[in-house]
Each structure stands twice: as structure tokens, then as C-alpha cells.
């Protein structure tokens, strides 16, 4: 059985097995601590029996006006615990926080264009590609900016795809 709980500072010393994946971005400790301090409701850890860390999600809320949204900074599941619905549980929780606590218009995330398994999972969760970000990742790989409208965006304006790719310097960051 998997339990979802708040990500804590102690988890930073015990989650390496979850983070050891080519597709997972690894950040420095101060980055994780910033998220835990500013957006604790968006930082969740999944544990199996015996308190083994199996997955986590980091996110935040950002933007202004109709761009007010939840952002998935990282979601990753340890390879031995994949295909068990844990990522869905984590994403559902983040979406719930965005819609019900922050009243956001959408949730977005960036995913490597080569990560076909993740793209397929996100599409099954209702996400669609909003735009391609050229050379977003450190190895110059493109990212897909995928979005899912929340109930506040009744007309689903936030997910209408852009007609052209963008460069990282064209992104709006908060």
C-alpha cells in the first residue's frame, strides 16, 4: 500500500533511489528547500510499507490574472514502483490544490520531447501539448509544455495550443 504525505526536509537524505532516472531533473538542496518553504502544499512524497520513498512531486503556484496556475516542477516514480497509479495520485492531489485552494486556471508541466511514456501518461490524465520549447533542457533537448484546464477556465482558453515553438528566453517565469 502506498501512502501520500507532505515532502519533508528529511526526505532530501533518503530519496536518491527515486531520483536516479535519466528523465528526472535533480536539483540542489537549496532549490528543494525553497519549494518546501514557499509551496509546502505542492510538495508530496509517496511511501510504501517500511517507509520506503517511492515517488514524489514538487510544484508551485504562479502567474497573474488568467495565467494564475499550478506548475508541476518535478514528478518522478522509482522504476520498481511504476505502473501502480502513484503518479496519478500525486498529479490528482496537485490538481486538487490548484483548483480548490488556489483557484488556478490550469496546471502546466514541461516534459522531455523524447519521454514518450510520460507524455502518454499525461495525455491519459487529460493534459495536452500547449507549445514546444526549443532547447529547454541542458542537453539542448526540446520540452513539451503540457497543460490541463482547471474548472475555473470554463472556456478552456488556457490550453489552446500556440501555433509556433518558443525559445526558453520567451517563457514567462515568476
From TrEMBL:
GO molecular function, one term: protein-N-terminal amino-acid acetyltransferase activity
SUPFAM superfamilies: Acyl-CoA N-acyltransferases (Nat)
Entry keyword ATP-binding: no
Any Pfam family hit: Acetyltransf_1
GO cellular component terms given for this protein: NatB complex
Gene3D superfamilies assigned: 3.40.630.30
PROSITE patterns registered for this protein in UniProt: GNAT (PS51186)
Span of domain N-acetyltransferase: 2-151
Keywords associated with the record: Acyltransferase, Transferase
Similarity field: Belongs to the acetyltransferase family. ARD1 subfamily.
Name recorded for this polypeptide: N-acetyltransferase domain-containing protein
Gene source species: Picochlorum oklahomense
Higher taxonomy: Eukaryota, Viridiplantae, Chlorophyta, core chlorophytes, Trebouxiophyceae
Amino acid at each position: 500500500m502506498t501512502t501520500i504525505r507532505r515532502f519533508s526536509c528529511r526526505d532530501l537524505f533518503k530519496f536518491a533511489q527515486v531520483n536516479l532516472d535519466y528523465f528526472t531533473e535533480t536539483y540542489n538542496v537549496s532549490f528543494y528547500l525553497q519549494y518546501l518553504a514557499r509551496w509546502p502544499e505542492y510538495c508530496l512524497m509517496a511511501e510504501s510499507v517500511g517507509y520506503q520513498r517511492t515517488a514524489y512531486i514538487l510544484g508551485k503556484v504562479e502567474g497573474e490574472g488568467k495565467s494564475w496556475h499550478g506548475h508541476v516542477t518535478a514528478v518522478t516514480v522509482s522504476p520498481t514502483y511504476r505502473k501502480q497509479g502513484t503518479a496519478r495520485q500525486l498529479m490528482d492531489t496537485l490538481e486538487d490544490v490548484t483548483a480548490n485552494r488556489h483557484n488556478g486556471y490550469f496546471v502546466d508541466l514541461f516534459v522531455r520531447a523524447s519521454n514518450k511514456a510520460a507524455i502518454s501518461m499525461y495525455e491519459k490524465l487529460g493534459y495536452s501539448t500547449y507549445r514546444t520549447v526549443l532547447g529547454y533542457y541542458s542537453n539542448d533537448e526540446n520540452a513539451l509544455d503540457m497543460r490541463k484546464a482547471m474548472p475555473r477556465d470554463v472556456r478552456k482558453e488556457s490550453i489552446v495550443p500556440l501555433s509556433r515553438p518558443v525559445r526558453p528566453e520567451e517563457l514567462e517565469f515568476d
